[in-house]
Amino acid sequence: MLGLSRYQWTVLFAAWLGWGFDVFDGLLFNYVAPNCVPTLLGLEIGSPEAKHATLFWTGLLTSVLLLGWAVGGIFFGLVCDRIGRKRTLLLTMTMYAVGTAACAFAPNIWVLLACRIIASLGIGGEWAAGASMVAEVVPENKRVTAGALLYTSAPMGLFLATFVNLQVAGNWFADQPEVSWRYVFLFGLIPVAVASIVRVFLKEPERWTRSAGATAPPRLSELFSPAFRRYTVSGFLMAVIALLTWWSCNAFLPVVVSHLAQTEAATRGLDRSATLALVEHWKFIATACFNLGGLAGTLLTIPIAQHVGRKAMFALYFGASALSIFLTFSDALPAEMRLYLYAAIGVSVFGVFGSFTYYLPELFPTRLRATGSGFCYNVGRILAATGPFLVGAIAAQGASSAVQILFWVGLVPLVGIALMPLVIETRGRLLAD
Fold this sequence. Notes:
By secondary structure, the protein is mainly alpha-helical. Helix content is 77%, strand content 0%. It has a single domain, classed as Growth Hormone, Chain: A, CATH 1.20.1250.20. α1 (6-41) packs across α11 (253-268), α10 packs antiparallel against α19 (411-418) and α12 (272-308) packs parallel to α14 (335-350).
């Protein structure tokens, strides 16, 4: 099927699972934040003080996650080029699973922060290992398709996070929001079982095995040498624009939707139990729209990248991102309409990430592939970390609502369009050894 052998499909599926659970574990906190943060701070869930604290801590913890993600991505990118794709994939999956599950036992917000840092290091490291392995194993003419298919696991990871949160917080423990979030975090252990199974079927790519035995270990400084500087800049700029936009929007999806649902519930005169149920239901609708849009947008990168090239593709997606954000967070929209407009944000803001799994590996040779891809994709998170923090901090101070602030996030992808002259086109280029 699609011209891939059984083993190539096995590699793609293993990396698909790794990245899907990566996203699943990474976003669990954002779903439980409206219950988790007030509980750990001793505040009444749903109170004005709890809402302000949730906005602030969601922004702070998301920014810390991104910083740890960046450090893990850069560090494990180097590790991956030294010890191999398979071992790095399994190591990072185990790290982020254990770190996420440990959040369930956090007695206060600071221990939760420490557990999130541990998880973030593994989350950051997994991407480069999986993307490099897929790029090196599949045929040259299937790299774009395989790379985009690999990223479809991101919407699936978000679907799983949404489903788990809905079942646990919305159904099983609907009347116990103070403890439901702990059980949600325990589901973060699932990747450990998956990693144990995956390790049986994988072997190191022949490209990496040949390169590791014939060349010197990679150094991070090589990315800035005259031979690779332009490629590093191109990959970094596209990644940082996409990351800053995605995290500024999606980190606050559960918080924004919770606020919209609580306001609607007050208008309807609903009691506490009905309000909590409406909150979880609306979070599910918005996230499902965002994920379905992201899945469609990810798959659309295949024909767009193949027919018009990578450079034009980035420009199209960034333009659509700006338009969808301005529309979704504009004034005077009915609350429920915003939920469904998250589909447009998904197609553009989320969908563009389907390209990085093939674009970044195309920029670097085998001995530097994970190092370069990991650096470009993850160092941008250091800058992207400012987005969620600033949005959360400003909204928590009451300067403006989160919806009004998110409207201005639409300017970020417009900056990306202005950077197009610095982007390197890789369409038709063979993967370099």
